[in-house]
Amino acid sequence: MSDYRIQGATGEWEVVIGLEVHAQVTSNAKLFSGAATAFGAEPNTQVSLVDAAMPGMLPVPNMECIRQAVRTGMAIDAQINRWSRFDRKNYFYADLPQGYQISQLYHPLVGEGAIEISPDDKNPDATKTIGVERIHVEQDAGKLMHDQHPTRSYVDLNRSGVALMEIVSRPDMRSPAEAGAYLRKLRAILRYVGSCDGNMEEGSMRADVNVSVRKPGDELGTRTETKNVNSVRFVMAAIEYEAKRQVEVLEDGGRIVQETRLFNVESGTTRSMRSKEDAHDYRYFPDPDLLPLELEDAFLEDCRASLPELPDAKRKRYESLGISAYQADVLTAEVEAARWFDTLLEAGAKPVAAANWTTSELFGALNRTGRDIATSPVSPTQAAELLALVADGTLSGSLAKQVFEVMLETGDAPAKIVEDRGLKQTSDTGAIEAVIAEVLDKNPNQLAQYRGGKETLFGFFVGQTMKAMGGKANPAVVNELLKKALAD
Question: What gap in Å lies between CA 100 and CA 118, rounded to an integer?
Fold first, then answer.
């Protein structure tokens, strides 16, 4: 149960949140036509006669889009409806050439499911289950362009007919943090499944944010819907602003109007767009041009067999290997990172050492250089080789850091770097003993203090020895030989 509350003049208020996420289906064609769907194409260059609603054109369902939606439903353990139907949602707008949108209101493809979230990043074991009411498929509308002409708006129909999954949650979230965690988890699942690329900046995933407030334990309040929010951060900001606005309105004696609002990213505020329509306002009816979808057992079995290991299962597998819950959560958050790490393990790296190195050294370097895992100059097999050189004593921790920096710059294999630059760790006891003797001779005061009982100076002698040997001495051997020398 979230302890997030808004403090008003009349006491505490609870926020109730539901999200309707529109996710563009990964497919090389639109939902009812063969037109392309690539992002960034010139306006009106990816429009078929069906998308433009030319007379006599009939829609034909793209079964790859249906397959991806079914796989998504299976990934959240949702009910898959073997029989579903398309409906027409009637409204008139310049970017909707048909005068209606083909959607699924009464009989969606996917029924109830659930997504488990971890609202607290620092405590991934503290989970909450968010219900998913349904997933239905529908076609997107086109886009109005208002900045191309001083007095006219242009219409780009490239997105007209693009396949969307609308994923509708239950109003189970009670804080911006829970909504953010839900959206991140849903995005991760979609990207693992491969049914949506999750690119919110390009509009292939966006959220309509439903918010209402109430006194804790009261009936649900009137909700508003903030449309087309395109980042996790903005979703959380829109919730925070809208909830506080509603509390102020109610405490001033006003009432909340059921309406559609827009979020302004510059000011962090929402504004009214239009009154919220109900289903009957759209005059839904079954689309007469499309037969119902009836899914066969073989199709469903193929969908289920094609699912990859999903984030929760992968995280539990990592934890079973001894990796901490926090690191497992970090490693599974993005599908590319998880696949990279799996390849690292397959190359023979020890799980705990590999997780420590990946989450600290690799991710730190990628952040520092503005790269992501997909553009990492270090491959998983090279990383496994580096970790193996540490494990067998060829490299100390500090030498491994030096080698890694060179790998980042050159892309060379670690063994080559060690050979070319003479960075191999030495365990030659004679050489180390000679350096230790020299260090003790140069620091008589510290030696006297140590032998007088100041044992904390042991680290000082270790550091001086390692420095004198350029970091190439085996630390375990240095420690052993130093203890012996200091005891003499």
Answer: 39
What is the helix (H) or strand (E) element at residue 447, kind and residue range?
helix 444-451
pTM for the full model?
0.86
Contacts of 10 (CB under 8 A, 6+ apart): 251
Q: What is the pLDDT of residues 207-257, one digit of tens each?
A: 999 999 999 989 999 999 999 999 999 999 999 999 999 999 999 999 999
Domain map (residue ranges) of the chain: 6-300, 309-421, 429-487
**Around Cβ 455, how many Cβ atoms within 10 Å?**
11
Q: What angle do CA 371, 375, 378 make, to 5 degrees?
A: 100
Least Cα distance to 135 among 230, 211, 201, 65 occurs for 65
**Element holding 275 (H helix, E strand):** strand 269-275
Q: CATH for 429-487?
A: 1.10.10.410
Rg of the chain in Å (alpha carbons): 30
The tokens for 249 are 């309105």
The DSSP bridge pattern shows strands 259-264 and 224-229 to be parallel
Closest CA to 389 of 399, 376, 375, 379: 399
How far is the C-alpha of 431 from the C-alpha of 448, rounded, in Å? 24
Element spanning 131, H or E = strand 128-139
Find the helix packing angle between 414-421 and 397-410, rounded to 10°: 110
In sequence order, what DSSP letters do the residues of 370-401 get, joined into one string? T--GGG-SS-HHHHHHHHHHHHTTSS-HHHHH
Give the alpha-carbon dihedral of 28, 23, 115, 244, to 10 degrees: 170
How far is Cα 165 from Cα 103, in angstroms, rounded to an integer? Answer: 10
